[in-house]
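Curious: why these numbers?
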Amino acid sequence: MTDAVRIAPSLVAELTVRGETVAVAESLTGGLVVAELVAVPGASAVVRGGVVAYATPLKASVLGVSAELLAANGAVDPEVARQMASGVRRALAVDGVPATWGISTTGVAGPDPQDGQPVGTVFVGIASEDGAEAFALHLDGDREAIRNAAVSELLTRLSIRLETGE
């Protein structure tokens, strides 16, 4: 059982109690984050949906990430993760109301480096109406291990954010 499988039920339960929603923007994880969340019974009350913006240009056209930022730094960048998380809140708004939380993943799962970043470099983002932040991860393992670890780290960080309010 992965950490994400253990974390997702409590995360969905907490969001449900709080009456909050989450929207997911994914790159290297390719839908794994939203899949973990929607595997939980009752997730439809809190999960708005997910955007897999695997191709870099989609990060700009769908999620509103700065095209200039992407051109200058590439997709593997903390500011890209922040903008993806903020952008998905708006992209998956319902009746003009953004999701309470936007979360995102961008990085390099391998086998080759990308945008000058080594395999295992991952940034996850968390956004709310109070702003957005990104966390740098340096993960080890093969492609599958890196992608699974990114999912677990992101869900863990959102859980901590909900618990601490920070």
